[in-house]
Amino acid sequence: MTDGVLIGIDAGTSVIKSVAFTVAGEQIAAAAIPNRYQTLPDGGAEQDMARTWTGAAATLKELSGKVPNLRDRLIAISVTGQGDGMWLIDKAGEPVAPAWLWLDARSAAIAGDFAASPHHRAHYQRTGTGVNACQMSMQLVWMTRNRPDLLARATTAFHCKDWLYFKLTGVRATDPSEGNFTFGQYRTRSYAPDVLDVLGASGARPLLPEMVDGTREAGQLTPEAAALTGLKAGTPVTLGYVDVLCTGLGGGLYDPKGETGCTIAGSTGMHMKIAPSAADVRLNGELSGYTMCFPAPGMYAQIQSNMASTLNIDWLLDVGRDVLASQGVERSRGDLLEGLDGRIMEAEPARAIYHPYISQAGERGPVMEPAARAMFTGLELGIGFAGLMRAVFEGLCFASRDCYSAMGDIPREVRITGGAARSRALRLMLASVLKAPVRSVQREEAGAAGAAMIAAVQQKLYPGMDACAARWVDPLLGAVTAPDAALAARYDGAFGIYKEIRETMRPVWRAMVASRAS
Prior knowledge:
Elements: E1 5-11, E2 15-22, E3 27-34, E4 38-39, E5 45-47, H1 49-66, H2 70-73, E6 74-81, E7 87-89, E8 99-100, H3 108-115, H4 120-127, H5 136-146, H6 148-153, E9 156-158, H7 160-169, E10 173-174, H8 176-183, E11 184-185, E12 190-191, H9 194-199, E13 210-211, E14 219-220, H10 223-229, E15 236-239, H11 243-250, E16 260-265, E17 269-275, E18 290-293, E19 300-306, H12 310-326, H13 333-337, H14 340-346, E20 353-355, E21 375-377, H15 385-405, E22 413-417, H16 424-434, E23 438-440, H17 446-458, H18 465-472, H19 485-517
Parallel strand pairs: 1-6, 6-15, 10-13, 16-22, 22-23
Antiparallel strand pairs: 1-2, 2-3, 4-5, 5-8, 7-9, 11-12, 14-15, 16-17, 17-19, 18-19, 20-21
Helix pairs in contact: 11-17, 12-15, 14-15, 15-16, 15-19, 16-19, 17-18
């Protein structure tokens, strides 16, 4: 179908998007609607499941008004969404409780205790993933201990995209990426349900849905969902992989040789590389990071994630805005960014070192340190705003190298996407810190595109993911930013200091957190 359309749904924590693409990967229309979540005094972070579904349906309905004859041109829909969390439904398919999000911290103590136990290493070697409070496994343990009444009513435990797939098709399923890294045996791409036995949540075993690979299987749009969205009943619907993998796929991560990396410089920082087979997976002594099945035969994505990436930039911009506002001058973040790239490049490199741990949750990649906090080291007279921002940019790049190093060799080329990818200064610093060429990807909605690519392969519009990536991704790769030799030499020494400071400060950070708590 030469004028056929594919739709990728990307349900984020704050925004739900549906994006229409041509078979060749050109974005032709998008619809978005905000979503909301509620934080609770006990550390909870919850989202209304019904609202999330009606929001997703509304974006599909809106696309019908933007794409001529979409109902008849639509080849398939694919859905991805925010990872981790817990979305429980009962036998009738109704929510048992509000969804628990990846931001939920109620199981932090449980995760911390398990991470410190002798069982954690075996869990890590089986799943390829370290534990933290945001994972469904930890949340099920909390609910087993504290709200067994809710679990007794539940029949299926979903992630966000699984819930939307269920509402679109009526099928209870999850995908191999989320099924395996939380509850599975990554080498066999299958469940290892005794994971829950070790955690003390054996009763939750029946809640785990079947794993469905969206590159091979598709459901069908139900009449009820068709009526709500204005689309045709029976339209194929594929269950995409988790959003970070779809963003990586749409952002240039796919590489059969495993030599390419992908960094998502968004609110959080994600650093990914492909392991072409299970034998190529490299686990680390910190028991950190994620190993996820990738939407290509036998491949895996290894991921290390910083809790905060551009949030560090936003924080420093807001400090500047607050100072100006105190003098009656109102400026936006965008105003302060105007021309800042050039001023940053004029500042002395590595004059101060910044650790980008601005999140109150601390850090998780490549070290699991909830007490970690952001800090400048080496401040002195003469360092102005641009110098501070340069240190922040460099800190993000050091964090990226820290993460890639925990997964083996630095990739031969790194593709970067996300808001900070637009900065020429950041791209040059990242290339120089990693000593590898960097390219930005000119894809506006990489997550939705990755989901749609899964549908394109499932519908046999392409013989495999390699052919699909060559058409959908390669033409959108930006120019290469090469490392600067002088900067690379300067950053080599600074990176060693960066790591030494981090290890030295760990007991100090813990003492600070304990002091505040008391």
